UniProtKB/TrEMBL annotation:
Name of this chain's protein: Methionyl-tRNA formyltransferase
Organism: Methylobacterium mesophilicum SR1.6/6
Signal peptide feature range: none
Residue ranges constituting the Formyl transferase C-terminal domain according to the UniProt record: 208-291
Boundaries of every Formyl transferase N-terminal domain copy: 66-159
Example GO molecular function: methionyl-tRNA formyltransferase activity
One family name in Pfam for this protein: Formyl_trans_N
Length: 291
């Protein structure tokens, strides 16, 4: 009896869980393995439970070396990475060639790297998206298989993230059949197109500090409004303001009011509702919570 080729799914969270269900539908043709990072056990637990119920083999890795060893031994026909926190080693990328794919939360080639949603909101992007792409030796630079783009105006970070989750699930669903059909016949590059590096943007680990969540009113009102949305990810992250030594969480973006000259930025004009001057306009905060 000839062994079935293997598909390895690596990752965490809801998109990865739904992708496991989708991939498992092909278990008559492929052996399916699920791999999670030890440090992500909590966010991987629902997928582990699902894998066990589907009789999918589950593997835990602690670092890139253990993942490399697993990859070399298992020799998968396809590896799918979805919010996986371990970076694939050069050995895996070399061995996998175009049989490694990743789901990235951004409309590549824009917002490669870290915290793409946060940076997109801070930059005032009206649209965002998710991208299914081949993994190469760069950071989110591989050829694009498919992409979904949607409006994000007035959305918080949490809301954009949720939209990315649902768009990501649909992207996997709509492309999985042709991907699994193609890997048995020809290169996945036949399904993809190269990214346009001339318009690419990249943000690294130190380009954002989520601990620095206190609003700086020496900015324009629109910049402050975008900051509040970019730093809103309940229940773990909220923008904050300080009024008379008391810190408050901002639970909803402020309303932008009239021009605030000649007041200096950061002056509290009223307390009900809280109205504060920015560099150019008043900002009205209707939903605050004492810390």
């Amino acid at each position: 009896m000839i062994d079935k080729p293997t598909v390895v799914l690596c990752g965490k969270n809801i998109v990865c869980k739904e992708s496991l269900s989708l991939i498992h539908k092909y278990s008559d043709k492929y052996e399916v393995y699920y791999v999670y990072a030890e440090k992500d056990y909590d966010s991987s637990k629902p997928i582990i439970d699902l894998a066990n119920s589907l009789e999918v083999k589950v593997f835990c890795v602690r670092n890139a070396k253990e993942l490399t060893d697993f990859y070399i031994i298992s020799k998968p026909a396809l590896l799918v990475s979805i919010q996986f926190s371990i970076i694939l080693s050069p050995e895996v990328i070399e061995a996998g060639r175009d049989r490694l794919i990743n789901l990235h939360f951004s409309p590549l080639p824009l917002y490669r790297g870290m915290a793409p949603i946060t940076h997109a909101i801070l930059n005032g992007e009206p649209r965002f998206g998710v991208t299914l792409h081949i993994i190469d030796s760069g950071i989110d630079t591989g050829a694009i298989i498919d992409q979904a783009v949607f409006d994000i105006q007035k959305m918080s970070n949490r809301e954009v993230y949720t939209s990315c989750e649902w768009a990501g699930i649909e992207l996997v669903r709509s492309n999985l059949d042709k991907i699994l059909t193609t890997i048995g016949l020809r290169s996945l590059t036949s399904l993809s197109h190269e990214q346009d590096d001339s318009i690419a943007t990249y943000y690294g680990q130190f380009d954002i500090d989520y601990n620095d969540s206190v609003i700086n009113f020496n900015r324009t009102a629109h910049q402050v409004e975008r900051f509040t949305r970019a730093f809103t990810f309940p229940p773990s992250l909220y923008p904050r303001i300080k009024i008379k030594e008391q810190m408050y969480r901002v639970l909803a973006p402020p309303t932008i009011g009239e021009r605030s000259e000649p007041h200096k930025p950061g002056i509290v004009l009223r307390t009900d509702p809280v109205t504060i001057s920015s560099r150019d306009r008043f900002l009205i905060f209707n939903e605050l919570q004492e810390e």
